[in-house]
């Protein structure tokens, strides 16, 4: 069962706000939401009920540090809880600064997605594997 998804991107000028080279929080948040959405979509491939999509229901995001133009952003989404129609996903964000080695933790969010089928909320029929 697919419980994690990793992706990355480089901060470009379109991701920055009027205080460039500072990233716009909404831009980073949208990348976090997209990462979590891909994670939920990949998970739903295993749905015994044929449920194949989910929508963002709510999110709780915390930005710990700013990020800047040219930095590489790494996102990791992990399914942490499954309810009848809901999928809870934690997204962790790290950055790699242009002139420094290593990564540092800059943001995180907990997303709740609601599973859907034929345009209606629908039970996905999945359970967390033992030990997860």
How would you concisely characterize the structure shown here?
With 132 residues, the chain is an alpha+beta fold. The chain contains one helix and six strands, in the order βαβββββ.
Describe the overall structure:
This protein is an alpha+beta fold and 132 residues long. It has one domain (4-121): Hotdog Thioesterase (Thiol Ester Dehydrase, Chain A, Roll), CATH 3.10.129. The chain is 15% helix and 42% strand. The chain contains 1 helix and 6 strands. The protein has one helix at residues 25-44; strands spanning 4-10, 53-63, 72-82, 86-96, 104-117, 120-121. Strands 1, 2, 3, 4, 5 and 6 form a 6-stranded antiparallel beta sheet that branches. Strand 4 (86-96) and strand 5 form a beta hairpin. The radius of gyration is 16 Å and the shape is elongated. The N and C termini lie close together (11 Å). The model has no long low-confidence stretch (mean pLDDT 95).
Task: Please describe the topology of this protein.
Elements lengths: L3 E7 L14 H20 L8 E11 L8 E11 L3 E11 L7 E14 L2 E2 L11
Antiparallel strand pairs: 1-3, 2-5, 3-4, 4-5, 5-6
Q: What is the helical fraction, as a range of percent?
A: 10-25%
First-to-last CA distance: 11 Å
Count all strands and give the number.
6
- The oligomerization state is single chain
User: What is the percentage of strand-forming residues?
Assistant: 35-45%
Question: How would you name the CATH homologous superfamily?
Answer: Hotdog Thioesterase
Mind telling me the CATH class? Alpha Beta
Counted by DSSP, the helix tally is 1
CATH fold title: Thiol Ester Dehydrase, Chain A
Give the biggest sheet. Answer: 6 strands, antiparallel
User: Could you say how many structural domains there are in total?
Assistant: 1
Q: Could you give the order of the helices and strands?
A: EHEEEEE
Report the mean per-residue pLDDT as an integer: 95
CATH arch. level architecture: Roll
Gyration radius, in Å: 16 Å
Structural class designation? alpha+beta
* Shape category: elongated
Unreliable spans are: none
């Amino acid at each position: 069962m697919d419980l994690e998804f990793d992706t990355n991107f480089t901060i470009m000028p379109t991701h920055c706000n009027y205080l460039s080279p500072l990233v716009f929080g909404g831009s980073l948040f949208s990348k976090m939401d997209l990462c979590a959405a891909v994670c939920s979509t990949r998970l739903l491939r295993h749905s015994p009920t044929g449920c194949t999509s989910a929508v963002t229901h709510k999110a709780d995001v915390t930005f710990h540090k700013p990020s800047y133009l040219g930095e590489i952003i790494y996102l990791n989404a992990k399914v942490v809880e499954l309810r009848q129609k809901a999928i809870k996903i934690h997204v962790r964000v790290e950055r790699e600064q242009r002139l420094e080695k290593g990564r540092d933790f800059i943001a995180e969010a907990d997303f709740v997605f609601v599973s859907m089928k034929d345009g209606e909320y629908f039970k996905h029929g999945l359970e967390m594997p033992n030990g997860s």
